[in-house]
Amino acid sequence: MPDPRNELPAPGTLEDLVQQALDEARQHGADAAEAACSGDVGLSVNVRKGEIDTLEHHRGRDMGVTVYFGGRKGSASAGELSEQAVRDAVQAACDIARYTSEDPANGLAPAERMAVHPPDLDLDHPWPLAADDAVELARDCESAAVEADPRIENTEGAGVSIHRGLHAYGNSHGFFSVLPESRHSIHCVAVAGRGEAMQRDYWYTVARDPAALEDARSVGRQAAEHAVARLGAESLSTERVPVLFRAPVARGLVGHLVSAVRGSALYRQASFLVDSAGEQLFPAWLQMVERPHIRQALGSTAFDAEGVATADSALVQDGVLQRYVLDSYSARRLGLETTANAGGVHNLEVSGGAGEDFEGLIRRMGRGLVVTELMGQGVNLVTGDYSRGAAGFWVENGVIDRPVQEITIAGHLRDLFAGIQVVGSDVDRRGNIRCGSILVEEMTVAGQ
């Protein structure tokens, strides 16, 4: 008999609740409304030193409704899926809307932009892994880290996470869809050395299909290798040198661009890239394209959070910023059209240059800094100033010379974008931004 904790609500139940919310909003006099219902189930286990640290079953049920009375908007949510919860949420949303001020930018996304025939992107892959088996898998991951090198003195644990969700969305344009999806992962944090000389690092794998996950023991070994490689790290003297952002942290650099061209930052005049569409921000060989329909990809979706159909779309073409990242509200505030980005970007692929692998990028750099970890919040999107704590490796004569830590890297994001030398072929696909390592011409590296 299946464990009820692993059961998702029936799609028909979600459809009925969404339709009830829309009907009741209309009965309350709302001009338009949208509603979303979600059901999630999951399992997460963490072990440390072979013992179970945590074991949790997850089961979430929630809904939200937004109503519009002309330019007045009200939103409310509930933590359960029931007819009474829908009635209460709609009543609360309508009460809120009646006391809010008019905003002509409020409203649903345009009806003609709805996803009429959304494609099946193969996003739901159950992982029928029992709790005991998940614990053993996490133990295998952790033991592989410990066995990988005698300098692994400890771990901060290893874990396995299983997640499935069913998400329904509908609005008074007549749009309705139910989206099933899954997301599974394995992770490990290894600790090398002892006393004051200890270093920690991690690795993880994540995918919608459990068959696409890296082997658990491989995850443990990579965590160990990364931790051991950091032993003996020291600081640096201050100078200006090339900087190579390894792929997992290079995604963050691209993320700063996305944040700076997001509609909410632009209409508030809170971005250094206000009115930058059409500008040459990057080298002419660099491309950034959203590809939301890649089957099984983590950032894939047939429609955004407002039901707007998604499609391949260039954000940067030949180094020129083509557009902003907009939902319908921010688009109206800016006098533009939605870019189907309510909820964020979808599989933003960064490409261009010679496409060298990581070792090739190190040889190309010759001398400089490889960044593998960033710390702090020193990014000012209003001014574009960038200053972050960092750790990684120092490179001499095209090879890694030694690990480094307790340093700061600084520059201006416009200069960093324009100074990109190459994007590597070592693409990290574990998120909505898919990017290889990025080599930047020069930054200030401050240490001792």
From TrEMBL:
Coiled coil: none annotated. Gene3D superfamilies: PmbA/TldD superfamily. Residues 124-231 form the Metalloprotease TldD/E central domain. One of its GO terms (molecular function) is metallopeptidase activity. Pfam families: PmbA_TldD_1st, PmbA_TldD_2nd, PmbA_TldD_3rd. SUPFAM superfamilies: Putative modulator of DNA gyrase, PmbA/TldD. One of its GO terms (biological process) is proteolysis. Residues 238-447 form the Metalloprotease TldD/E C-terminal domain. Residues 37-97 form the Metalloprotease TldD/E N-terminal domain. One of its GO terms (cellular component) is cytosol. Belongs to the peptidase U62 family. This is Microcin-processing peptidase 1. It comes from Halorhodospira halophila (strain DSM 244 / SL1) (Ectothiorhodospira halophila (strain DSM 244 / SL1)). The lineage of its organism: Bacteria, Pseudomonadati, Pseudomonadota, Gammaproteobacteria, Chromatiales.
